[in-house]
Design goal:
alpha/beta, single chain, 250 residues, 7-stranded mixed β-sheet
């Protein structure tokens, strides 16, 4: 049996950063009329999987977004423990979060409002002020098949290096970028971000983790990606959104 050391050197828990685009612009390559609903649901499932981590592994989850639908849905998830209540902005049913899980969810505005990398830099700056001395992990917000154990495995590997990167299933994008205490995050998300992060000095975890973290690597941009995520098993919010989308088709 393999025993993982969850925390990086220094023992501080990770702060996980998730930047979320405006829903009107999200998932433009996902050729479905319900893509905005699915983008919201996939983000909820991603956040929920991260929050299910032990508190000594993930101390805080910081969502950086200006989208009001995202903010309302995540606020209900955090404050009311009931995403299905309210104005119907999100899919239902939603998972119930413990008080401890909800306390770690922080939603902040994307003050730069200039794309993913400035949003992440902003989130990293806020995290450094609020939780100084804690390592950072930037995570994609479209991982509906993410399993908490996969994130544990990846962070355990990342904790051995100042900066580390994990490629998406296609091998060109980035689903996870980490920086241990004192190291700059230096996000370069966008086309061919995996090679950009490697060139900036991040250690590549992709070969070492390989197929052991399929849900973590399966981000969703296209209908084919979504089909593969469904094959792995999506979270409750995404599953509910897919049922709503199917029911809406005549």
């Amino acid at each position: 049996m393999v025993t993982f050391v969850w925390l990086p050197q220094g023992g501080a828990s990770w702060t996980v950063l998730l930047p979320l685009k405006n829903l009107a612009r999200a998932k433009s390559r996902l050729d479905r009329p319900d893509r905005s609903l699915l983008a919201l649901a996939m983000a909820i499932d991603t956040v929920t999987a991260v929050l299910a981590s032990a508190t000594d592994l993930v101390g805080a989850v910081v969502i950086v977004t200006n989208d009001q639908t995202f903010r309302r849905a995540l606020s209900r998830l955090r404050d009311q423990d009931d995403l299905s209540a309210g104005d119907g902005a999100g899919p239902s049913p939603a998972p119930a979060l413990s008080t401890q899980m909800r306390a770690r969810l922080v939603v902040v505005p994307d003050t730069p409002d200039q794309g993913l990398n400035p949003a992440l830099a902003h989130g990293a700056e806020l995290a450094a002020g609020r939780w100084p001395g804690h390592p950072l992990a930037a995570l994609s917000g479209d991982l509906p098949a993410l399993r908490t154990a996969e994130l544990h495995r990846a962070l355990a590997a990342a904790g051995n290096y100042r900066r580390a990167v994990l490629a998406d299933a296609a091998g060109t994008g980035t689903v996870l970028l980490t920086a241990t205490t004192g190291a700059p995050l230096r996000p370069s998300f966008g086309p061919h971000s995996h090679v950009a992060h490697r060139r900036s000095g991040a250690v590549d975890l992709t070969d070492a983790l390989g197929s052991s973290v399929p849900g973590l690597r399966r981000d969703v941009d296209t209908v084919d990606d979504l089909a593969q995520a469904r094959g792995l098993g999506v979270g409750g919010a995404t599953a509910a959104a897919l049922l709503v989308g199917r029911a809406a088709v005549p």
